[in-house]
Amino acid sequence: MTRLLPLLAFLAGAACMAPAPAPAGLVISNVTVVSPDRGQPLVNAYVRIVGDRIDAVSLSPLAGKQVIDGEGGFLIPGLIDGHVHLDVLPVLRPQDEAKHPGLAEALREQEPRSYLYFGFTTVIDLARDPGFIAGWNARPVRPDAFFCGSAAMLEGYPMVLVPPQIATTLFPYFLHDPAKAASLPASVNPAEHQPAAVVERMAKDGAICVKTYNEPGFGPARNLPNASLEQVKAIVAAARARDMPVIMHANSIRAQQFATEAGVDVIAHGAWNDSGYTGEAKVKAMDELVAGIKAKAMAYQPTFRVINGIGDMFDPALLNDPRMAHATPPALLAWFRTPDAGWMRQEMAGDWDASKGPPPFVQSALSQGVAIATKMNQAGVPIVFGSDTPSAVTYGNPPGLNGRLEMQYWIDSGISPPALFHAMTLGNADLFNLDDRGVIAAGKKAHMLLLRQNPLEDVAAYDSIVTVFSSGVAIPRGDLSAMAK
Q1: Nearest-angstrom CA–CA distance, 330 and 353
Q2: Which residue from 35, 281, 294, 434 has the least number of CB within 10 angstroms?
């Protein structure tokens, strides 16, 4: 036994001298970390991911089982689009799907990848339900999805856009006017469709926000019912008690005046409809609106691409944009160029000669929307990011790319690249109480983007994405393209 003691001591010492195994995780080295919670970018940094979380951010080298050399690029938080509609298919009616089988399936398969391709690792659907969102989040490659409960008015917008026999199923959180109880289906309990009860149900179902509407209608659908001021104030009170922001669809000066009086948290859309105001009276109304929104500490979500999503159907530039091929399956992109896909363009044109380009209302509405958003920004009203993808069944709002196009309108309206960056990251994370994302810090969800350019300097930086980190998984951007199939 005494002869074995030196050997055992030697083996014990050798074991102590053996190098420790590398810690688990993926290390991103040689990057500049640009995070909205930091006063200055962190140059020559290292970031380690363990599982789906950021484990460490350091100026000293970090060890991991895998190392990705960032090659001097810029590492930023994944972007958050605060206004999407994940189940809406562009210009694909049931008869189109029957005539061209496979198009809808190809789009649904590509849609989550397109959001990631353009840097959006989190999306907020403003009119969905927990079942749909759970199905979306079960996909292996996709941005995280959350949802707002839609407090639509029975027989109002947007319920009026779907067949009445399925409207209450598609909009389970609808409101109704107590004075019109006779219009309710016999199976519906009226008490369950008043403001407090609706918000309570949304919260129990996992909604993180509430969507309301003030929309009298457009096209053939006019004079639609809307929630009363008292009902909307009751929604706001019930939502505030649960820390759920309230977003109101309001796209006219008068609708936005209503939203301001109701005290919602966010007004969605530009005031494209001037509500009968003209000349100096319109300028005064817009200025008073901006002042009222600022006084109530509300926020504004301009969604510029709603109007141009319509206009782009009259201009081949979008279909010819090389980025469109990354967002859209090839067969679907080819179909968009056919006469069959032009039905909505003709519907929007009305008596207008579509060969002349977009109808005049497109430019006038967009100009007014840009003007009021510029006033909001100059007055210091918080501007929050949302692309409203798609705002209608137009192919002018392609997933992911529509958000990138929305960014450019922000810049053109005088909003700075740093303000845009903040809005798409920490701004939306704070608005929707998503405390585990929006910045690059230990413990946060590992949703990040590796870029070749600095987004604080130029919006074109978002075209230089190299790698998307989704829940800790590194995905080369090219693998997410619709052309990668």
Answers
A1: 29
A2: 281
